Amino acid sequence: MIHEQNGKFPAVCPLDCPDTCGLLLHKEEGKIVKVTGNPEHPITKGAICNKVRNMAERLYHPERILYPMRRIGAKGEGKFERISWEEAIEEIASRFTELIREHGPESIMPYSFYGNMGALSVDGMDRRFFHRLGSTRLEQGICNAAGNVGWKYTMGFMGGTSPEDTAKAKLFIVWGQNTVSTNMHAWSIIEKARKQGAKLVVIDVHRNRTGERADWFIPLHPGTDAALALGMMHVLFERGLVNQEFLTQYTIGHEELREHVKQYTPDKVSAITGVPAEHIVQLACMYGETSPAFIQIGNGLQHHDNGGMNVRAIVCLPALTGQWLVEGGGAIKSNGDYSKFNGAALARPDLRPNPNARVVSMNQLGEVLLALDPPIKGMFVYCSNPAVVAPDTEKVEQGLQREDLFTVVHDLFLTDTAKYADIVLPSTSTFENTDLYRSYWHHYIQLQEPVIPPQGESKSNMEVFKLLAQAMGFEEKAFQDTEEDMVRQALGHSANPYIERITLEGLKEHRFLKLNMEHQQRYLDTLPTPSGKIELYSQQMAEAGLPPLPTYVPLIEGYDGERRPGKGAPYPLMFISPPNHSFLNSTFANVDKLMKLEKEPMLQIHPEDARARAISDGDEVLVWNDRGEFQVTAQVTEKMLPGTVVSQGLWWEQEGKRQRANALTPERLSDMGNGATFFSTVVEVKRQWRS
Ligand SMILES: Nc1nc2c(c(=O)[nH]1)N[C@H]1C(S)=C(S)[C@@H](COP(=O)(O)OP(=O)(O)OC[C@H]3O[C@@H](n4cnc5c(=O)[nH]c(N)nc54)[C@H](O)[C@@H]3O)O[C@H]1N2
Ligand SMILES: Nc1nc2c(c(=O)[nH]1)N[C@H]1C(S)=C(S)[C@@H](COP(=O)(O)OP(=O)(O)OC[C@H]3O[C@@H](n4cnc5c(=O)[nH]c(N)nc54)[C@H](O)[C@@H]3O)O[C@H]1N2
Ligand code: SF4
Ligand SMILES: [Mo]
């Protein structure tokens, strides 16, 4: 493919998105001129989002980094000089060697996430390198950690309903997800089912694009979802809408739960959530009486202090009604465990000389860089842009500014983070590499092979970490492995029966192969919880110091309907900053066409809250709290309940304008999984005249 000048070539979307679409790259004279969906892909079926239709603009963007650079200006200034790869690798290896000699290997840390979801790129050679080095370890809880742990306490396994089956559902509850923007093929399924009469309920703090299209949009106060789910359980038990046979056979703790939810009366839950009591009853009855009823759980509701518990409470609902046994019923948060690769074979934790090396949370990067003792002295950032995406970016920035911190950033662009690097390395795009992809939503494994040669002098993560391993004198065979070796290792000898029939040869021939989903038939009999059943009561949670039954726990920073701030409270509004439609986290926030579609950072504010502050639509406003400031344009709208303001999208900083939502967000960790708590943030807003 790489040598052919013209034609259409299959590829995989590498972005952190549940859909993991099959793509077709259209080449003319050796260049990708167009990106479309691959119609042969069994579930994404040729449809892709507008972001990736514009991927060629990103690939050949004039600002793409094409050679290694060394910083010559101040940290953050963005002044660099070109150097050779030999110099760059030599400098990194000698600085790392020096740091290890003087301060030990734990003075160095990686910082990465899933800017590219390729297993070889982010769960492979990179991991081997940092394990062998003995670096401080990074706990990657920025995305789905809290909710996944909440789900796992209940179900034991990150896998729910098969997406194809949900087409049969008669009721969809989309809970804290903006499906239209963030999981478009799930949206296609919903739309199809609605043509057959299915109904869509959206539960969110904000009438997003998905809420706009719902049959019934239910707005609630942030972080009160567990209360709503408990209110529904109250009604389900009280009205005899539970499936007793299912509860007895497949769950533990249903008797305790029945007693426990008596306190969550519709009136009490209404006072907490802001949802009228009669709507709570109506929703519960609708859920209890419709079959198949399917719940799509998003990531939004788990970026809270109580995020794990929100998911934990919701995922109990299909167990009460027995919907897990109904084809098309049940729930999905992530289906990632079905497609799990052999992680140890890829990452080789056995190479680590110090298995007990310290662990830091990626959600506390500012604190880690500023206060960890002994300090971090060297950091290697790849596949992530923490200066924009991490909580409390003011603190992150201060950390990145430390003169005694040696920072390397490997990326395709000079991101806000890369501006602080001592050494910047150019990264290939996935279309220039071989890599292996799975989805955390559908059941297809896909192989990516290079369609175009590396742009400029760019190198893949795999190549960079192999070069560094060599320069550091790491002689293990693990650092000689080729891409194909690693694909075989990822697919081989796994404890995961679902991937048993997938091979490199098969993938080369077919591009995408379906997991062996026959095992799913025994799903409820093989749940890996301690009891082997759905745990409505969880002893594991009790042991972790959490309420063992699903429980509403108010936010540490934030308000529910019962705890509204008094007059004069410094920060009376809750600030929610979810993704927008045209960017993928901070990726694409430098692509003109997509920036134009999003116009500029906006703050959606309720007319009541706007009036109280003399703010009109289109005013430039300042949003602030103790952590930082954020300058945006006000959009007065009734899309939220009063008391909540929303700004969608993660924008890069701009000359003279503070436009990072994360300047306001906390580094606090969630109740479970040390997850991020982006949305448990309080702020004040005022009008600011344009200067
Ligand atoms: N277009 C686009 N697609 C993306 C991404 C992107 O940036 N842009 N990012 C990708 C990634 S990494 C992820 S993790 C997913 C995230 O995508 P989703 O799973 O859709 O999650 P979010 O968009 O974070 O939040 C979804 C909704 O949750 C709402 N929300 C916030 N707090 C609460 C709450 O307390 N209760 C309830 N019920 N709702 C709440 C927000 O208002 C938002 O409308 O999308 C992926 N896909
Ligand atoms: N306020 C607020 N903050 C959030 C969120 C939110 O909803 N609100 N969402 C959070 C969530 S869910 C997530 S997942 C995180 C995501 O945060 P990140 O993982 O940091 O995602 P991106 O901003 O897309 O940055 C990915 C970077 O990887 C680079 N990259 C792409 N491919 C490669 C490659 O092959 N090699 C290398 N070396 N680099 C590559 C891209 O150019 C890009 O700069 O953000 C979190 N931050
Ligand atoms: S970002 Fe998501 S929807 Fe868009 S092409 Fe990639 S996988 Fe498909
Ligand atoms: Mo994410």
UniProtKB/TrEMBL annotation:
Its cofactor is Mo-bis(molybdopterin guanine dinucleotide). It comes from the Bacteria. The lineage of its organism: Bacteria, Bacillati, Bacillota, Bacilli, Bacillales. CDD domains: MopB_3 (cd02766), MopB_CT_3 (cd02786). It comes from Paenibacillus lentus. This is Molybdopterin oxidoreductase family protein. PANTHER family: OXIDOREDUCTASE YYAE-RELATED (PTHR43742:SF6), TRIMETHYLAMINE-N-OXIDE REDUCTASE (PTHR43742). Gene3D superfamilies: 2.40.40.20, 3.40.50.740, ADC-like domains, Dimethylsulfoxide Reductase, domain 2, Formate dehydrogenase/DMSO reductase. Keywords: Iron, Iron-sulfur, Metal-binding, Molybdenum, Oxidoreductase. Residues 6-63 form the 4Fe-4S Mo/W bis-MGD-type domain. One of its GO terms (molecular function) is oxidoreductase activity. Belongs to the prokaryotic molybdopterin-containing oxidoreductase family. InterPro entries: Asp_de-COase-like_dom_sf, MoPterin_dinucl-bd_dom, Mopterin_OxRdtase, Mopterin_OxRdtase_4Fe-4S_dom, Mopterin_OxRdtase_prok_CS, Prok_Mopterin_Oxidored, YoaE_C.
